[in-house]
From TrEMBL:
Residues 52-134 form the Penicillin binding protein A dimerisation domain. GO terms for cellular component: plasma membrane. This is Penicillin-binding protein A. Residues 157-481 form the Penicillin-binding protein transpeptidase domain. GO terms for biological process: cell wall organization. It comes from Nonomuraea cavernae.
Length: 486
């Protein structure tokens, strides 16, 4: 073979090799990026070519569904009561999704491997592909009641309710809210423009305050400090006498920790029940320091704090805070300093006490069925942690019942039902009025619901209205009644 032919052959081989490398690079490395590229109009239209499954609550109430469209788009997404369920369903936009729409996307659009058999049957019969239906654990009555009660407060906030025996989420409301239909259209200009507007709003309506953000829990956290105190010595109980000075010296500082409003707490020594009823700061700050950082943090972890949870949406991690000095431990033990909790975590604490000390893993998806109604997946309740012994849970239950019957949470009382609860008022670092909190479960002897209520900057007035008992407890009462009075 002469030299020119050899050079031509080598050049062909090199070009062929480069072509194969490029093909493999595009298929193996850049395939996903190219598929998701906003300029890929074929992918854009295909996103609306499949009839996505329904999202329902209680198997009946439709939260999201696809309706037939015209033109280049076969189906469009609609949300019959969008604002009420926005932070649960999320939205389905031209290029992204959120909430259940994102967390269960492959099932809703029919592409999940779990639907392979269904797709094969549809291919054989000539039927178009349809997504699976996702039924949620949400109780529509409880959801609507929580939404209305929180909205009437005129404040930003969150309400989340659980079945303490299973972990099923019965209600999850975050205000302010938004209309997911505005972010689920096909006009990219309108959708992206509206998203940018919502994202820039100071009130952060896109934020699910139950799971996306942590807050100082204030005095609601005192039930965790009480749990650690009781677990540390099984001989202790609701009648155990604890020191309760009007103010508590914080080691290494010139600062003293006062009770709420600078008030006295009994006669300087009170029962543990009385301290919880009146939400005295000094005894719980003292308990936290006596127990020490390690024991306090261990107790928080037993309630599930610090674990990465998915419900299936990802949940921000709650945290007792880093190890500092004894003064910091005292403040963290009354729910301040670097102590940060999500409303969901606080509901899990109430649920764990209600469930004899066992915290169940929270979940939002009850059942998934294919387009023909055949079951694809069903939830199975799962234990998350053993927070306290059943004996300690019983003691805490007794004290929390007394808080509602005789203490700061009397506005959470439900006629004919024994309610357990704990109020909280949490100072904020930004100079805003304190947050108002309330955690609860009922009936105390056979709990069917546990919940947490957070009203951001809800403690704007003085006296009773400045506590979770005046602002958050009435909201909780309405939700308790909605679930218990069937």
């Amino acid at each position: 073979m002469n030299s020119p032919i050899k050079r031509a052959a080598v050049a062909c081989l090199v070009m062929f090799a480069l072509l194969m490398i490029n093909v493999n690079y595009l298929q193996a490395v850049r395939a996903e990026g190219l598929s998701e590229d906003a300029r890929n109009t074929r992918n854009y239209f295909e996103r609306y070519a499949v009839q996505r499954g329904r999202i329902t609550a209680g198997g009946k109430v439709i939260l999201a569904q696809s309706k037939e469209a015209s033109g280049d788009f076969k189906f469009l997404r609609e949300y019959p009561d969008g604002k009420l369920y926005a932070h649960i369903t999320g939205f389905f936009s031209p290029e992204s999704a959120s909430g259940i729409e994102a967390a269960r996307n492959s099932l809703l659009d029919g592409s999940s491997p779990d639907l392979l058999l269904r797709r094969s049957i549809d291919l054989f019969t000539g039927e178009p592909t349809r997504g699976a239906n996702v039924d949620l654990t949400i109780n529509p009555k409880a959801q609507k009641t929580a939404y209305d009660a929180l909205r009437q407060s005129g404040k930003r906030g969150a309400v989340v309710a659980l079945n303490p025996k299973t972990g099923a989420i019965l209600a999850m409301v975050s205000l302010p809210t938004y209309d997911p239909a505005e972010l689920s259209g096909t006009d990219k200009g309108k959708v992206f423009g509206r998203y940018d507007e919502l994202a820039k709003e100071k009130s952060q309506p896109l934020l699910n305050r139950n799971i996306d953000r942590t807050y100082p829990p204030g005095s609601t956290f005192k039930v965790v400090t009480a749990a650690a105190f009781l677990e540390d010595d099984s001989s202790r109980g609701p009648d155990t006498v604890v020191d309760a000075p009007q103010s508590l010296a914080l080691p290494g500082t010139s600062v003293r920790l006062p009770n709420y409003g600078g008030a006295a707490c009994g006669g300087g020594q009170v029962s543990l029940t009385f301290a919880l009823e009146k939400s005295c700061n000094t005894p719980f700050g003292s308990m936290g320091m006596d127990l020490g950082y390690d024991k306090m943090r261990e107790q928080t972890e037993k309630f599930g704090m610090g674990q990465q949870l998915g419900i299936p949406m990802s949940v921000a991690k709650s945290d007792f805070g880093k190890k500092e000095d004894q003064a910091a431990v005292a403040m963290a033990s009354i729910g301040q300093r670097s102590n940060q909790m999500t409303p969901l975590q606080m509901a899990m604490i109430a649920a764990g006490i209600a469930n004899d000390g066992t915290v169940m893993k929270p979940y939002l998806v009850h059942k998934i069925t294919d387009a023909k109604g055949d079951s694809v997946e069903e939830a199975e309740p799962e234990e998350l942690t053993e927070a306290v012994s059943s004996e300690t849970a019983g003691k805490l239950r007794e004290m929390m019942v007394s808080v509602v019957a005789n203490g700061t949470a009397n506005q959470a009382q439900v006629s004919g039902v024994q309610v357990a609860g704990k109020t909280g008022t949490a100072e904020t670092a930004d100079g805003q009025p304190p947050h108002a909190w309330f955690i609860s479960f009922a009936p105390a002897d056979d709990p069917q619901i546990a919940l947490a209520v957070l009203v951001e900057s809800g403690a704007a007035n003085v006296g009773a209205e400045a506590t979770g008992g005046g602002t958050a407890a009435p909201i909780a009462r309405a939700v308790l009644e909605a679930v218990l009075n069937k």
